[in-house]
Inverse folding.
């Protein structure tokens, strides 16, 4: 059995869970998320101790989905309570980001300006011209959008120019002028 799957999930204050068949709905101050549970896995909600327990049978498929289901539900509870955030920074001369409506415009060294449409369930802000902040209650959507923006111009290994996560360290290579 999964070690993570056995741990009970703590239901935080201000978070409401509703289970209807194999559909679990989590609602909190940041938003509402839904998940369709696999038939191999079952969920028990204990209102008294404010915990949720994921149970699975002994089949191979159930073991595979046991820990995953528990982790997804835990991420949903944390997301609707506090939310998730990813920060990106642009590094390079003339690299600029702006937000117009629900579209992120990036000038990152190409001849044309790149445009990325912001999904409806996310909040994207540009505190200044070289930083992007992606916020939302769905951990997967936040990470996916941040990765999609980063993939428009990944940091290159010689000068380090590009879009990177804040705090990401890019190991720079020595150029051809470096002699050994």
């Amino acid at each position: 059995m999964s070690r993570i799957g056995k741990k009970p999930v703590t239901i935080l204050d201000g978070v409401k869970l509703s289970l209807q068949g194999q559909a679990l709905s989590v609602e909190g101050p940041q938003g509402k998320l839904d998940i369709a549970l696999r038939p191999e896995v079952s969920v028990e909600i204990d209102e008294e101790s404010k915990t949720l327990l994921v149970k699975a049978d002994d089949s191979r498929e159930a073991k595979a989905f046991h820990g995953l289901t528990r982790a997804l539900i835990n991420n949903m509870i944390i997301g609707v309570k506090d939310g998730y955030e990813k920060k990106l920074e642009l590094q390079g001369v003339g690299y600029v980001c702006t937000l117009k409506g629900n579209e992120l415009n990036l000038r990152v060294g190409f001849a044309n300006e790149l445009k990325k449409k912001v999904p409806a369930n996310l909040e994207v802000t540009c505190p200044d011209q070289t930083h992007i902040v992606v916020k939302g209650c769905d951990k997967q959507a936040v990470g996916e959008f941040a990765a999609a923006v980063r993939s428009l111009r990944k940091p290159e290994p010689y000068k380090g120019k590009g879009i990177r996560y804040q705090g990401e360290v890019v190991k720079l290579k020595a150029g051809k002028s470096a002699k050994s």
Remarks:
- The first strand starts at residue 9 and ends at 10.
- Residues 3-81 form a domain with the Outer Surface Protein A; domain 3 fold (CATH 3.90.930.12).
- Residues 68 and 102 are 32 Å apart (CA to CA).
